[in-house]
Amino acid sequence: MTTNSSLGEPKKLQLYSYYRSSCSFRVRIALNLKGLDYEYKAVNLLKGEQQSPEFLMVNPIGYVPALVDGDIVLADSFAIVMYLEEKYPEHPLLPRDLEKKAINYQAANIVSASIQPLQNLDVLKYIEEKVGPDAKLPWVQKHISKGFTALEKLLKDHAGKYATGDDVFLADVFLAPQIHGSIQRFNLDMTAFPLLARLHEAYMQLPAFQDAMPENQPDFPAAQSGSV
Ligand SMILES: N[C@@H](CCC(=O)N[C@@H](CS)C(=O)NCC(=O)O)C(=O)O
C-alpha cells in the first residue's frame, strides 16, 4: 500500500466524483464493496468544473471519475474498477468461470460503451442546441432501451439474485447506476425490462450500493434541478 512517507501511514484514496454521474457511481460501489475508505473530491459538472485547468491535470479528457492512489492517478471507471480489483482482492468482482467472466465484461461494456456515452452531458447539450430541448429525452430513452433489450437477452440464462448468479460481480457494479439513472433521471418505463427491474430492487437492498447512491453523496444538492 502507498504510504505517506513522513508519517508512515497509508495515504487515503481520493475519488473525483459528481453525485449524479453514473460513471462515478460505479466506482463508489466498487470502493464500498471492497471496503475501501476514500476522500470524496466533488467536481460539479453543471458548473463545468471538469474543464478547469486543475481537473484537466488529473484527467485530460475532462470526465469524472478519477482516482488517486498515492502516486497513481487513474481515470475511466472501467480502468479504475479493474485496478481496484487487482490491487484489493476483497470481494472479487470477477467470477472464476470463464464464460461468466466474459458475460460480466460484456454487460459492463454495453453500459459503459454502448449506452452511457449517448447520454453524456456534452451529447445532450449538443442535441438541445442543434435539434431542440424536446429531442433530448426521446434520444436518451431510445438508446437506453436498445442497450437494455440486449442486456435482458444476454443475462436471461445467467442471472440469479444478481446479474450473473447469486453473487455481486462487475456486471452489477455497472448495471445498478445505469438502471437507477434511467428510472430517476430519464423516466424510463421498465415494464419491457423485467429482469433489470428485478435486479434494481435487489441492488437497492445492498448497503454498498445504497451508500453509493447520488442522494448519499456530500455534493448532493438540497434541492435538485431535475434537468437531464
Ligand atoms: N468512459 C468514461 C466516461 C466518463 C464520463 O463520460 N463521465 C461523465 C459523467 S458519467 C462526465 O464526466 N461528463 C462530463 C461532460 O460530459 O462534460 C468512464 O467510464 O469513466
Describe the structure concisely.
With 228 residues, the protein is an alpha+beta fold.
**Secondary-structure element sequence?**
EEEHEHEEHHHHHHH
Integer average pLDDT: 94
Structurally, the number of domains stands at 2
CATH class assignment of the largest domain: Mainly Alpha
Strand content: 5-15%
What is the helix tally?
A: 9
Q: Biggest sheet, open or closed, and with what strands and sense?
A: 4 strands, mixed
- How would you describe the oligomerization state of the chains in this entry? single chain
What Rg is obtained from the alpha carbons, in whole angstroms?
18 Å
Helix content: 40-55%
Shape: globular
What small molecules does the structure contain?
Answer: glutathione
Helix-and-strand structural type: alpha+beta
Question: Which regions contain 5 or more consecutive residues with pLDDT less than 50?
Answer: 1-5, 224-228
Number of strands: 6
Second-tier CATH architecture of the largest domain:
Up-down Bundle
Order of neighbouring strands in the sheet with most strands: 4-3-5-6
N-to-C terminal Cα separation, in Å? Answer: 39 Å
Task: Indicate the CATH topology of the largest domain.
Answer: Glutathione S-transferase Yfyf (Class Pi), Chain A, domain 2
